[in-house]
Amino acid sequence: MCKDRTRNDIETRFRNCDEELHEYYGETFNTETQQRLGSFVAQAFRQRFTKK
């Protein structure tokens, strides 16, 4: 499904999704939540795409 995606591509898609959520809810997440979510997603991708 998800072949060779660069980290940049993944981050861009995540940002686009984030912007869609802002539009949908009509407000921005507070910074703390966004940072937590961002680091969680980054960690998840790192674990998934790092060859062991």
TrEMBL record:
<protein>
    <submittedName>
        <fullName>Uncharacterized protein</fullName>
    </submittedName>
</protein>
